[in-house]
Amino acid sequence: MRVANYYRVSTKLQEKKFSLAAQKEELNKYLSQQGWKLIGEFKDVESGGKLKKDGLNALLDIVEEGGVDVVLVIDQDRLSRLDTVAWEYLKSTLRDNNVKIAEPGTIIDLANEDDEFISDIKNLIARREKKAVVRRMMRGKRQRLREGKGWGIPPFEYKYNKQTSKYEAKEDWKWVIPFIDDLYLQKQLGMKSISDKLNEISKTPTGKQWNEHLIHTRLTSKAFHGIQEKEFTDGEQIKAYVYEPLRTEETYNKIQEEKEKRSGQFSVSGRKNSDNIHMLKRTHITCGHCERTISISQHGTKERPNYYAKHGRKKSIKSQCDLSINTVRFDNNIIKALKDVLTSEELAKKYIRIEYDKNEVNILKSEIKQQEKTITDLKASLDRLLDIYLSGDLKKDKYLEKEKVFHSKIEVQEETLIKLKRKLTAIDSSSFTYESLYQYMAIAKNIESELTGLERAQLVGTLFPRGIVYDNKIILITEVFNGIPIEVAIPIDGDPYTWHHTKKNTHVFL
Fold first, then answer.
1. Any coiled-coil ranges, and where (predicted)?
2. Where exactly are the structural domains of the chain?
């Protein structure tokens, strides 16, 4: 009998404790007793639940070449803890090549229905055992995290301290995260530019080149301000402070805000010339007609850029809106509006509602009541959802998914309610006056001074984090006045490039 020995352990730890060498010694002893001929030895240090393993693949190659009669294993679960599809594939490969599975004292011929049935039972038991092992392991990991002890492979800037069960930053690499944060937040570099800067200084601790993925990971991981956070299959979330902080949580939040501003319509990734940034690049703009996101897109050359407020590339199936406006139609109007607001109350009234009559106050109160009713209805729906789950008509994962959606909606509605109440309070107390408005808008005094494009975008983005654009006007929304949303309505001029309309049915940027 031509025999191929197959040895497997799941982890490096098992390789030391339950040694591949021990399996090899026992199988070779049995093989010798049977008088069989050893053709080859194959091994893996991987999960039995995976079909694609180097050792197993090499073994199947020799099987398909007809070079073996028996695959000898210490126990069938060394060969397989596979799911049904993968197990059927493995069995058919062995059966089609007349190869048997052998354990010390047992030979299984897969061409025999009874033997195959026994083999299937063994695989099923092995799979159940594997799941039980995983469950026990995950329970242990959960408990470790609850106790504030870390587990898993850390970022390469850290090393594990067995005494404290915490991750300590490597002294030689503590500089990396503050360096990345400074380039991203202060220097306003993109991820590609940051990786280039790092590669000029040093490779990674593993000797590889820095790249955008590594920078992105370091900007978004909570590990660098100390947190290990895990969400388990039942929806439970556990977090613990197990890493030595290399940045503050405040800095992490600033990075996420900055990242959100740069994503898609806000991207300034890698741009070295900060003058080529439109003043609304840091403002989240939506379409007043279809509510889709509007981006500020750059066209032309770097030296002479043209900007358009338009929808992104992804077109909505539900909406045929294709708003696209050349920003020259409102750029100067934005500057003029800011100057006028800071000049006098009369000029400010052209853009901002400063005075409210009794009827408008009543409308605001009505909006508050409606908002409160919406929140009450959402909370009632959440209670009904819990009743459905407790009655057994809804699976836990679906319940947790829907519960998360409801909480998110309630949070948004409650935030809106808070702002409406603040506005009503300000109006009732007569604190919403031109003088107070001037005080909060004063940061835009230097909008026409020698600012770079980036500095102007940062200023406008801080003053107006949100905006809505229509065919004939753009509304910029500020909340600098005690968190009260104040709308500044700015007109959009007519199309100065009507001569572009030369071909019928040809899309033209307005």
1. 354-388
2. 2-143, 147-262, 284-352+440-491, 358-429
